[in-house]
Design brief:
- The protein contains 18 helices and 26 strands.
- The longest helix has 72 residues.
């Protein structure tokens, strides 16, 4: 039962739904009928094939059993005659009288009616006695058989089976000879009528037209239900089954490809008569053999056609029952798609189609709910975008303010230097200028750290080191700053060793201590360590204003700042704790905050603790010496800004270096006149010629045929440049560069170049 609830919808363009459903009906019907027909036909074909094989094997097995039974009877017949003849020669022939010998022979003739004549040969091959059913007895004829194969082979093999021959063209006979147990016992020779074999094969009836026959070792017919064929002495060796059976590798278990004497195919099986090496064949015409199978196949074909007709009818009915609810689903989905969300589909089939209709109804309900709340969601998203833009504007305003402050101070200090000032005042102004530059560097470095973390170019270098080494660095860096604010800065020493990246962990602790000093107006800051299981917690305590509970998660976000700082009036960009959080996640360390308003805060970082070991003392690297003019290194500085070139040139000359400074073309011209390549290249990245610093460095190296040490200096802090410089194997410093950082990079890159040169030489 199928019905619709709701308003009907108009049709859409394209193929009408009823036409598409008609195609669907035909498709399902064809698939169902095709699948059933294929299954039935395949099953019928396999059934017929296996029935054919089983019938053939069964017939061959039956015929082979008949052949083996006949061969066994013939062998038994020959064995009995041989045994009777052997019983006649227990004594030497000259040890008994003719009457005694004749008595034994007559008894044997009565027991073996197939034997028609018996002769006794002495040890020299001469005939002594002969008794026949059809002739008179002969005594001491002394006929010489010493060279006859009958005597020769019997004496050699103890028994002789002669070939089959016809007596007066009427019946087949063969000769059997048996030697006595002693050499002087002689040989007894018997003629055997093979009519018994004819009786054996005549009794074999594998089927109404079936028959059996026997051929000798030479392939000649010696027994057949039609005795006239035997009398014609027919050679059967040309038949394929006889030829195959006589082959050395022939096996009795394998059916033979066979034809009868008229060339018609037959099903043939054979068995060997031992020890005569005759072959008994049992054959049945193929048509007769497979007649029951052919009848069964015809019956199966009729049943298959009936099954196919029923399958066709069932397929049509099933497809119709399937297509009707599908058509209902199609029309209902079309109405829902046109926006009629009140449409509901009602299908009562108690199967998956009914479940699918219910899902369509649920979907329509959800769409109604979605449309009802869509406007609210749009308003919410709009509000979120406005908040994001507002946060961005606040950040840009804060960044602009914090960058303008030191720039403004620099302008004022430079204006003071233009006038007349005393020496003490000049030194104070220079110190203030240095402080303003430090503030600007701090802001730029924070932005650069965030850029590096966003670019994913920071790769931790995990080592094991004593935490006391890190605390000493914090003490050296922040003691003076704490004293300037009148704060106490105490450290609780620890002998523990930890596993982390020393430089990144130092950046984390520096940011925490810097924040603690900045936001603490009185009291002090304590830095210490606590062991917690397998971890060590580095804790930074302060006596600042504390962090409200509802803002303790927000302060780890980017560009988030609390209220006024404590004392120095500088609150930064709000990136310090964001950098701490990102670095801790990069190192897989956890950072925690506990705070009480009005009393202070505690930031702690938990990292893995390792076993302590003796620390190997490090020899501090000597400062870069000022060089003599005769041994001064040549440095190439490439930049488009004349002020930068002048500042860099003065700095490098003050350190004792020879200098070539200018644009990329000027630098190439300046080094071409030198008798040796430069020792270092320092290049800006974005040049006015359109080239990059990497391209210029590579060009100078090719022009001078030397692998010159080099690094980049740029004001571009984009993640793409960081990745490009790292992929090209160059260090990158971001402007503005602290002179000591620049000098450290120069020493580091030149040491790397010297080490590579030594490796190439070795």
């Amino acid at each position: 039962m199928t019905s619709f609830a709701g308003q009907p919808g108009a049709g859409t363009g394209g193929t009408p739904p009823h036409a598409r459903s008609g195609r669907l009906f035909r498709k399902y019907a064809a698939i169902f009928v095709g699948a059933v027909c294929l299954a039935l036909v395949t099953n019928g074909a396999f059934d017929m094939w296996f029935s054919y094989q089983e019938q053939r094997a069964l017939l061959v097995q039956i015929q082979r059993g008949q052949a083996e039974s006949a061969a066994s009877k013939i062998s038994q017949f020959v064995d009995e005659i041989e045994a009777q003849m052997a019983w006649v020669t227990p004594f030497p022939w000259n040890a008994i009288t003719f009457e005694e010998w004749r008595f034994d022979v007559v008894r044997m003739l009565r027991q073996a009616p197939a034997v028609t004549e018996v002769a006794q040969l002495d040890a020299t091959g001469r005939e002594q006695f002969r008794i026949s059913r059809h002739a008179k007895d002969v005594i001491e004829s002394h006929a010489d058989y010493s060279r006859d194969p009958v005597f020769v082979q019997t004496m050699a093999n103890k028994v002789y089976y002669g070939p089959v021959y016809l007596v007066e063209g009427s019946e087949p006979y063969m000769t059997i000879a048996v030697a006595g147990s002693g050499h002087d016992h002689g040989v007894i020779v018997g003629q055997v009528n093979l009519k018994f074999i004819w009786e054996v094969v005549s009794q074999i009836k594998p089927g109404t037209p079936g028959y059996a026959y026997v051929v000798d070792a030479g392939g000649r017919l010696i027994a057949d239900p039609d005795i006239s064929l035997v009398l014609r002495n027919i050679d059967m060796s040309s038949l394929p089954q006889v030829r195959a059976a006589r082959a050395p590798a022939a096996g009795a278990d394998e059916p033979l490809a066979a034809v009868d004497r008229q060339g018609k195919p037959v099903l043939s099986a054979h068995a060997t008569v031992t020890p005569l090496k005759w072959l008994v064949f049992v054959e049945l015409p193929i048509d007769e053999a497979y007649a029951p199978l052919y009848n069964s196949m015809r019956r199966s074909a009729v049943l298959l056609l009936v099954a196919l007709a029923l399958a066709l009818l069932a397929g049509l009915l099933s497809a119709r029952r399937m297509v009707v609810p599908i058509r209902a689903l199609q029309e209902g989905a079309m109405r829902i798609g046109r926006g009629n969300l009140t449409q509901r589909i009602a299908i009562k089939t108690n199967d998956e189609l009914e479940a699918l209709g219910d899902e369509f109804n649920k979907m329509a309900t959800r769409l109604q709910e979605s449309y009802a709340t869509l406007e609210h969601k749009v308003e919410e998203r709009t509000r979120q975008l406005e908040l994001a833009n507002l946060a961005k504007s606040r950040f840009l305003a804060a960044a602009s303010h914090d960058l303008r402050q030191p720039l403004h101070a620099l302008g004022l200090f430079v204006a003071q230097l233009h006038g007349r000032v005393r020496a003490n005042e000049r030194r104070r102004i220079v110190a203030r200028i240095d402080a303003a530059l430090s503030a600007m560097n701090e802001l730029f470095n924070a932005l650069l750290d965030i850029s590096k973390l966003d670019a994913g170019v920071l790769s931790p270098s995990i080592t094991e080191f004593p935490v006391a080494k890190l605390l000493d660095r914090v003490d050296t860096t922040f003691t003076e700053a704490a004293q300037e604010k009148g704060l106490s800065l105490r450290f609780i020493s620890s002998s523990a060793w930890v596993r982390s990246d020393f430089i990144l962990l130092e950046r984390i602790v520096f940011n925490l201590v810097s924040n603690a000093i900045r936001y603490t107006s009185s009291g002090g800051v304590v830095v210490g360590c606590r062991k917690r299981g397998v971890n060590l917690r580095i804790e930074v305590w302060d006596t600042g204003p504390g962090v409200p509970q509802d803002q303790q998660q927000n302060i780890f976000g980017e560009f988030y700042r609390l209220g006024a700082p404590g004392g120095d009036g500088r609150s930064g960009l709000g990136l310090g704790l964001a950098i701490v959080d990102r670095l801790c996640r990069l190192l897989d360390h956890s950072v925690l905050l506990t705070s009480i308003l009005g009393k202070g805060s505690c930031f702690s970082v938990a990292l893995p603790r390792v076993a302590a070991r003796p620390e190997i003392g490090e020899t501090p690297a000597p400062a870069h010496p000022l060089m003599d003019a005769s041994d001064r290194k040549l440095v190439v500085v490439i930049d488009d800004d004349p002020l930068v070139l002048e500042g860099m040139g003065g700095l490098f000359r003050s350190w004792g270096y020879q200098l070539v400074a200018g644009t990329d073309d000027e630098a190439l011209a300046g080094v071409s006149d030198r008798d040796r390549p430069p020792d270092l290249i320092v290049s800006d990245h974005h040049l006015s010629s359109g080239k990059t610093g990497i391209e210029v460095i590579e060009g100078l190296r090719r022009a001078l045929s030397a692998e010159i040490p080099a690094f980049l200096v740029s004001g571009d802090t984009s993640p793409e440049l960081l990745r490009q410089a790292r992929a090209s194997g160059y260090h990158l410093l971001h402007k503005p560069v602290d002179p000591m950082t620049l000098r450290a990079m120069v020493s580091h890159v030149m040491r790397e170049g010297a080490a590579r040169a030594r490796e190439e030489i070795s």
